[in-house]
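haha ok so turns out i had the wrong file open the whole time. this is the CORRECT one, sorry everyone. sequence first:
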Amino acid sequence: MRSFTLAAKLAELGVSLSFSRPRVSNDNAYAESWFRTMKYHQSYPLRRFRELLSVKAWVDGFVGWYNAEHRHSGIKYVTPNQRHYGQAVGICAIRKQTYEEAWQKNPQRWSRHIRDWSQPQVVSINHPRPQTPVAA
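then structure:
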């Protein structure tokens, strides 16, 4: 991230760089999360790339995987593409039906009721928790 050309491109795109700690209000949590996923992906290179085209090819492949295959817990284990193109609600409805049928067939198998498969209205990382009123 210290490369001048990358910093200049990010500034041109309106992305501000952040070198702060996690969960700090001005931190770019989405970028931090994305870079962590990238670093721990099984295809992450063990050695440096020898040329820029190799970097671009690897990142293009990673972005394709991230958007089309990687299921995110924050959006109920659907891919970003499925969420973006409006498929997530249908996928989660099928999952909910499957879980309900399994629960009805064998309720003692479950320690609690089935998980909530409804899609969140707002997707965020490190969003503020609701404040509880202070007792007087």
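The chain has a mean pLDDT of 83.
again sry for the mixup
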